[in-house]
Write a structure and sequence with these properties.
The complex is a heterodimer of chains A (115) and B (113). With 115 residues, chain A is mostly beta strands. Chain A has strands spanning 3-5, 10-14, 19-21, 24-26, 32-39, 46-52, 60-61, 64-69, 74-79, 88-96, 103-105, 109-114. In chain A, the strands form 3 sheets. In chain A, strands 2, 5, 6, 10, 11 and 12 form a 6-stranded mixed beta sheet that branches. The relative contact order of chain A is 0.34. In chain B, the strands form 2 sheets. In chain B, strands 2, 4, 5, 6, 9, 10 and 11 form a 7-stranded mixed beta sheet that branches. In chain B, strands 1-3-8-7 form a 4-stranded antiparallel beta sheet, with no helix packed on it. Chain B has strands spanning 4-7, 10-13, 19-25, 31-38, 42-51, 54-57, 64-66, 76-78, 87-94, 103-104, 108-112. Chain B is 0% helix and 51% strand. Classes of the chains: A mainly beta (115), B mainly beta (113). The interface between A and B is medium-sized, with 21 and 25 residues.
Chain lengths: 115, 113
């Protein structure tokens, strides 16, 4: 069974600084994907970044990067140069690439960017 | 533009009533999913479908059912609403089984009194 653990219920970061949101995963699949989603106070779910388990390089999308450490089963999200608009809930998720292809989400981390 | 919509956006119902939440996507995606979001639990998968006439149970499927009669729609039915089903419900779709991204609807806030 897959499991996603996000141990930081809440985080604060100063505007323009970088912040790392932690995510560890547990899966028995040999091939899988890892995702991060942002949920602002308005409630919609916004896809941020994807990392495949066989990707050799860490994924990057603009100010977002995913620090993927396969041996440690971690997939931390790094946001560089934080902006006030980054204040939101962030969810880590995984999906196996075999069997049922279900997405499993973590419980989320609420990030607050301080001016 | 393609989109995924949910209706109603807000619903208040009484315990024991049957409730159906609609989800409609114009992405022409094969995969559709229903989640519920509760504080402290993140998003939990209720049901999912990989195509017309295909439905599967997720981790919290008790008390819920879905049917997939066409590509665009996956309605979620609460057979007999319970207060424990008060939640925010999200529908999502994705293109294929190895698709990277899910597209989410705006959510439906359901209150069962």
């Amino acid at each position: 069974a897959q499991k996603i653990t996000q141990t930081q219920p809440g985080m604060f970061v100063q505007e323009k600084e970088a912040v790392t949101l932690d995510c560890t995963y547990d899966t028995s699949d040999q091939s899988y994907g890892l995702f991060w989603y942002k949920q602002p106070s308005s409630g919609e779910m916004i896809f941020l970044i994807y990392q495949g388990s066989y990707d050799e390089q860490n994924a990057t999308e603009g100010r977002y990067s995913l620090n993927f450490q396969k041996a440690r089963k971690s997939a931390n999200l790094v946001i560089s140069a934080s902006q006030l608009g980054d204040s939101a809930m962030y969810f880590c998720a995984s999906k196996g690439h075999s069997g049922t292809y279900k997405y499993i989400f973590g419980t989320g981390t609420r990030l607050k960017v301080l001016a | 533009d393609a989109e995924i919509t949910q209706s109603p956006r807000h619903k208040i119902t009484e315990t024991g009533r049957q409730v159906t939440l609609a989800c409609h996507q114009t992405w022409n995606h094969n995969n559709m999913f229903w989640y519920r979001q509760d504080l402290g639990h993140g998003l939990r998968l209720i049901h999912y479908s990989y195509g017309v006439q295909d439905t599967n149970k997720g981790e919290v499927s008790d008390g819920y059912s879905v049917s997939r009669s066409n590509t665009e729609d996956l309605p979620l039915t609460l057979e007999s609403a319970a207060s424990s089903q008060t939640s925010v419900y999200f529908c999502a779709s994705s293109e294929g089984q190895e698709a990277h991204e899910q597209y989410f609807g705006p959510g439906t806030r359901l209150t069962v009194t």
